[in-house]
Design goal:
It is found in: Cell membrane. The chain is about 80% helix and about 0% strand. The protein is an all-alpha fold. The protein folds into two domains: about 50 residues; about 210 residues, MetI-like fold (Orthogonal Bundle).
């Protein structure tokens, strides 16, 4: 019985027209699928809250839920519009934003700087690391009475409380970011002559930035909680936290929900700003 060698399957050259065409078609199909998924996600993100609000409105009007505690959303919107017209809402939103932006901004900046230095210095981290680890778990709200005793019922204790909250979150995340940098990247930077400040600028800082932005998102949410809580204490007569607390005491639920809504909007806007900044400054992470 004679045997014949099997014919080899035809292969395509890497740059053949058929191969390039299939690659292009696959890329187009992938982009089309991603566009469909983005459209679906956008529709869901809009329709789900609308359906929830409509269900709330109908349930409150049908007395399925107690409208004394859950007033119809239309009543809340009307109360918010009246507060805008009278200026009452701006009177409370402005101080909260000031405390958030000043305390949170300075705390984030200080936390990033200290985290970068500690992450780059083994000796400094050995000296300060245990102290920061001991202070981080302390409830920042519990520190507020001490700040009131020292500085009195002024703006400074509220700003410092937000500062401390943001500082520790950013310091820990930044140190973790520096430590997470691949050793091979550091060695490659050294091989290309990056030493001292140039190594820090082109290797350490970009490598730690994903952790920095992750920390910023966490710190923003926590700072919003803290600033609202310190405004509950009665050490102030302005702020969205004071508005919520005072509305509860006077049993005006519409104003209470307006305060909660504005706080949620502020948190969402700040988080969106951070995410957009990350995509702008870290273009290699845009697809994530």
């Amino acid at each position: 019985m004679s045997t014949r060698p099997l014919a080899a399957a035809p292969t395509e050259a890497p740059g053949s027209p058929d191969r390039d065409r299939r690659t292009l078609e696959a890329a187009r199909a992938h982009r089309a699928r991603e566009n469909r998924l983005r459209t679906r996600d956008l529709v869901l993100s809009i329709t789900a809250p609308i359906l929830l609000i409509v269900l709330w409105e109908l349930s409150a009007r049908a007395l399925i839920i107690d409208p004394r505690f859950f007033p119809p959303p239309t009543h809340i919107v009307a109360a918010g519009a009246e507060m805008l017209r009278s200026g009452e809402l701006w009177e409370h939103t402005g101080p909260t934003l000031l405390r958030l932006l000043v305390g949170g901004g300075l705390g984030a900046l200080a936390g990033i700087v200290v985290g970068l230095v500690m992450g780059s210095s083994r000796a400094l981290n050995a000296a300060l690391g245990p102290l920061f680890s001991a202070l981080y778990p302390l409830p920042k709200i519990a520190i507020f009475p001490i700040l009131l005793m020292i500085f009195g019922p002024t703006e400074l204790p509220k700003i410092i409380a937000v500062f401390i909250t943001t500082f520790f979150i950013m310091q820990i995340n930044t140190v973790s970011g520096v430590w997470a940098i691949d050793r091979k990247l550091l060695e490659a930077g050294t091989a290309y002559g990056a030493t001292g400040f140039s190594r820090f600028r082109f290797v350490v800082l970009p490598g730690a930035m994903p952790f920095v932005f992750s920390g910023l998102r966490t710190a923003t949410g926590t700072a919003v909680v803290v600033v609202t809580a310190v405004e509950f204490t009665g050490a102030t007569s302005t702020g969205l936290g004071y508005l919520i607390w005072n509305s509860w005491q006077l049993f005006i639920p519409e104003k209470l929900y307006v305060g909660l809504l504005v706080i949620g909007i502020i948190g969402a806007l700040l988080t969106t700003l951070i995410s957009r900044s990350e995509k702008l400054l870290l273009p290699w992470r845009r697809e994530r």
